[in-house]
């Protein structure tokens, strides 16, 4: 029986290329007779290492880089848990994803993927996802979000982390229903590797993820997974803002810093990417964090300095010669539960 192919993502089918993982082997129907592995309460996620170019070779598979919140979905006999990258339980924040996971028809599983909100073109929009959750520190449940799942770490009593990625994804593809449901399989991109990044950037995606097909699941940044971005995006600490009587919400720009050891290094400001409502909320929050002792050596009549507490995700086009961000744009605040790391300036410019 020939397996039906999944529909292509709307922004990746210009060349009629199909997006489908390669089947490696059929799932063993006798697996239940094998010894069971205890289900872990949490698995530290495998993280992608940033690289400037797409790696070439048949031992790599490629996926869209989704721009959202990394989550692990734990399906257990007693229910479903939605766990953030930092290990926090956010089941109540993603109720539609949790409900969809209950309908997958498995007794136990751990799914690794990204919660996203899509725009009208099918692209993930980090700002829209954050707004659906009520902003940083908000308590709203996101009903607009969906979950792109790209790895399967545990299934029906069996720990799969020691199995090669290609097999894990083959089992995962059997598990996730085709179509436009709340939980979707993150398809493999089967365009020529040399064209992938240009194609992704043309469609204004964040970038590409490359993964070794034959590697087990390893926590941390081991180099088994790589990320190649169209536009750089990093997390920076907000250390103040510039007041403006004419700008929306009273904020002309946010003052940003990176981390270097125990010190903060000023990397410039960002004045685009937030609307009046965002600016008003930011100002209220930042005004509660005011300090007379700035953590970076800056002076300005309109500068208001704050304690280094809020982490902003910033999109930018590179660096100036003096170490400032070029063409920076604000994307949103990172949650503490998202375990975002402030950009490390150690070794920068060397």
From TrEMBL:
Its EC number is 6.5.1.1. It comes from the Bacteria. The keyword Cytoplasm does not apply. It comes from Rhizobium chutanense. Residues 19-38 are annotated as: Disordered. This is DNA ligase (ATP). PANTHER family: DNA LIGASE 1, DNA LIGASE 1/3 FAMILY MEMBER. Pfam families: DNA_ligase_A_C, DNA_ligase_A_M. Gene3D superfamilies: 3.30.1490.70, DNA ligase/mRNA capping enzyme, Nucleic acid-binding proteins. It catalyses: ATP + (deoxyribonucleotide)n-3'-hydroxyl + 5'-phospho-(deoxyribonucleotide)m = (deoxyribonucleotide)n+m + AMP + diphosphate.
């Amino acid at each position: 029986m020939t397996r039906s192919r999944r529909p292509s993502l709307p922004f990746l089918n210009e060349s009629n290329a199909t997006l489908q993982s390669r089947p490696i082997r059929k799932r063993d129907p006798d697996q239940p007779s094998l010894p069971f592995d205890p289900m872990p309460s949490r698995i530290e996620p495998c993280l992608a290492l940033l690289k400037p170019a797409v790696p070439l070779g048949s031992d790599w598979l490629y996926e869209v880089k989704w721009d959202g919140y990394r989550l692990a979905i734990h399906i257990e006999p007693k229910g479903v848990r939605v766990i953030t990258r930092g290990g926090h339980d956010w089941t109540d924040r993603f109720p539609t994803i949790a409900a969809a996971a209950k309908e997958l028809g498995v007794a136990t599983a751990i799914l690794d993927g990204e919660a996203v909100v899509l725009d009208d073109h099918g692209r993930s929009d980090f700002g829209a996802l954050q707004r659906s959750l009520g902003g940083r520190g908000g308590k709203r449940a996101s009903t607009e979000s969906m979950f792109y799942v790209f790895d399967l770490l545990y299934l029906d009593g069996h720990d799969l982390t020691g199995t090669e990625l290609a097999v894990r994804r083959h089992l995962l593809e059997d598990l996730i229903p085709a179509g436009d449901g709340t939980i979707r399989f993150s398809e493999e991109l089967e365009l020529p590797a040399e064209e992938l990044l240009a194609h992704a950037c043309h469609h204004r995606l964040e970038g590409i993820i490359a993964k070794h097909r034959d590697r087990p699941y390893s926590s941390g940044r081991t180099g088994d997974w790589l990320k190649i971005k169209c536009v750089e995006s990093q997390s920076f600490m907000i250390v103040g803002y510039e007041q403006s009587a004419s700008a929306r919400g009273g904020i002309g720009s946010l003052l940003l810093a990176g981390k270097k050891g125990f010190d903060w290094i000023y990397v410039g400001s960002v004045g685009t990417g937030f609307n009046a409502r965002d600016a008003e909320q930011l100002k209220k929050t930042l005004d509660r964090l005011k300090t007379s002792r700035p953590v970076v050596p800056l002076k300005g009549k309109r500068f208001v300095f704050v304690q280094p507490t809020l982490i902003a995700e910033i999109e930018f086009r590179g660096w100036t010669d003096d170490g400032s961000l070029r063409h920076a744009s604000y994307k949103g605040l990172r949650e503490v539960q998202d375990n975002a790391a402030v950009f490390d300036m150690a070794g920068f410019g060397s």
